Q: What sequence folds into this?
């Protein structure tokens, strides 16, 4: 950080602090979105030492300039000076007012959090991309200047506002590379068109499948989003894997059933990056009320405490590379210990698993998807050109000293993966190794693990005879999460429609799926289809379910 602030005038390559620069990491998604918001609306302060004075915009051979002082005057007094008037005439009154408000809106992020993130590998990769558009006056990458301005603005009394960011930019001018910017916009537009087409294809195929589906005829129609009638108790255990030096808590939800010789059906829930034991407590309680035993471990290398420590400067890693191996091994060790603790009370030989994001990866790895390092190396070579944020996490696996590719646990016999990351870490070859029932759940508005590359296309790679794709139109990466006291706050705009809608879907689909494949009650298979999706859909976040039987796999090549 000091080098960015005090050493800007020297060669940029000498400014890299090798003691701070870290190995490949993934930022906490909520922090990424906060910072992305800040970069969309740069900010200003009063300290004019080496501060930028003008913004230069190139459009072909023509160059336009805009005084930062004119923006500041407008933001603080509402007066439009001559330099700004040429641009203001293109905006209506409402847009001008929005600009005025945006210029002084404080993002409320500490300078420590900014520094911790932008010195991580992921932060630097994002800066490299942004630096191609926001440059110094001489046309050099704005990489270091942007980082310096963000840190200094956040540390300033006024805080991180777009205007303060502009005033803290440590060169006399800011140059906007419009050609590069338009290229990025074009690429993003292409991605949006591809996404819309793929989503339309999924919904169309689901509609066609509705004609062939048959929902079990029960009167009155059951509402599986309502809790069951069983009481349950919750027990907390501490897992101590001495061989891996891995200590982690696990909560086990046990339904209170009449004494029986039959072991309780078991479901495991794996949380995502930055979450904790309680993120999916709503689902654990729901399943327990219907007679499932539910085990919820907290992965120590990728939980909310790990991320909080990073943002407070108490940890250097967002998550260690070894977490790709440790997470699935946590579940394997957990099943071993549950067998010892509960004996024959739990059926640990036929287990269902559900995970979200990094937990979705965990579920798929345990289900049989194999890590594909050649695919990963190929994809990560083009990391700077990709708009797929999840690659920042997937590429982290290349830095692990453990090159294990097969993490399958035969005791896992069915799996649900919500917003999983799959494209590079598994690829087509790795996903094709799964041979148990799988459901992928995707949000159409997920910018973190985008629907098309991470769920929709990988769904077509699955060769298992029973596979399901569930699409939540308007769903984001955070729609299914329940905020807990230990979780990292997520901006409201990133959550999307009311989370209760998505959580209701997860309770219904989780109950039906695991009733069919863990309890082996085949009648519930009648609900795992497009017709049932139509029946339970909420128009605020429409739900589509696509089921591909072995004889219909070709028709599911979206």
A:
């Amino acid at each position: 950080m000091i080098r960015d602030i005090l050493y800007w005038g020297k060669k940029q390559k000498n400014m890299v602090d090798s003691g701070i620069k870290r190995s490949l990491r993934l930022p906490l998604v909520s922090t990424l979105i906060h910072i992305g918001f800040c970069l969309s609306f740069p900010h200003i302060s009063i300290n004019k030492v080496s501060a930028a004075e003008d913004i230069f915009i190139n459009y072909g051979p023509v160059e336009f300039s805009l005084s930062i002082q004119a923006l500041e005057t407008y933001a603080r007094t509402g007066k439009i000076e001559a330099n700004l008037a040429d641009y203001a005439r293109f905006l209506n009154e409402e847009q001008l007012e929005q600009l005025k408000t945006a210029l002084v809106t404080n993002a409320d992020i500490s300078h420590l959090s900014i520094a911790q993130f932008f010195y991580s590998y992921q932060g630097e990769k994002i800066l490299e991309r942004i630096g191609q558009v926001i440059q110094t006056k001489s046309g050099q990458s704005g990489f270091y200047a942007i980082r310096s301005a963000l840190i200094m603005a956040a540390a300033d009394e006024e805080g991180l506002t777009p205007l303060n960011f502009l005033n803290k930019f440590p060169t006399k001018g800011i140059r906007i590379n419009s050609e590069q910017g338009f290229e990025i916009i074009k690429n993003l537009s292409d991605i949006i068109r591809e996404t819309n087409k793929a989503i339309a294809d999924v919904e169309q195929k689901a509609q066609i499948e509705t004609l062939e589906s048959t929902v079990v005829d029960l009167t009155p129609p059951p509402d599986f989003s309502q809790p069951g009638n069983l009481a349950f108790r919750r027990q907390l255990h501490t897992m101590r894997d001495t061989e891996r030096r891995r200590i982690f808590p696990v909560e086990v939800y046990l339904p209170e059933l009449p004494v029986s010789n039959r072991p309780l059906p078991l479901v495991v829930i794996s949380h995502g990056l930055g979450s904790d034991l309680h993120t999916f407590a709503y689902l654990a309680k729901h399943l327990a009320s219907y007679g499932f035993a539910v085990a919820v471990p907290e992965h120590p290398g990728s939980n909310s405490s790990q991320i909080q420590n990073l943002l407070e400067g108490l940890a250097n890693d967002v998550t260690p590379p070894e977490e790709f191996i440790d997470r699935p091994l946590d579940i394997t060790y957990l099943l071993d210990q549950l067998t010892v603790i509960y004996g024959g009370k739990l059926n640990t030989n036929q287990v269902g698993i559900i995970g979200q994001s990094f937990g979705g990866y965990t579920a798929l790895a345990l289900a049989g998807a194999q890590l594909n390092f050649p695919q990963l190396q190929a994809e990560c070579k083009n990391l700077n050109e990709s708009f797929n944020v999840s690659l920042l996490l997937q590429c982290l696996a290349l830095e692990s000293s453990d090159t294990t590719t097969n993490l399958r646990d035969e005791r896992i016999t069915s799996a649900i993966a919500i917003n999983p990351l799959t494209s590079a870490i598994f690829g087509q070859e790795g996903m094709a190794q799964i041979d148990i029932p799988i459901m992928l759940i995707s949000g159409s508005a997920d910018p973190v693990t985008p629907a098309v590359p991470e769920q929709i296309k990988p769904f077509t790679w699955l060769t298992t005879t029973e596979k399901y794709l569930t699409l939540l139109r308007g769903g984001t990466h955070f729609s299914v999460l329940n905020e807990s006291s230990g979780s990292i706050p997520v901006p409201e705009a990133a959550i999307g429609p009311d989370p209760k809608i998505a959580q209701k879907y997860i309770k219904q689909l989780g109950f039906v799926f695991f009733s069919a494949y863990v309890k082996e009650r085949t009648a519930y298979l009648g609900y795992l289809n497009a017709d049932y999706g139509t029946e339970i859909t909420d128009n605020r976040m429409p739900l589509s379910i696509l089921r591909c039987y072995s004889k219909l796999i070709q028709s599911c090549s979206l």
Summary: The CA atoms of residues 44 and 164 lie 2 Å apart. The chain has a mean pLDDT of 83. Residues 2-171 form one domain.
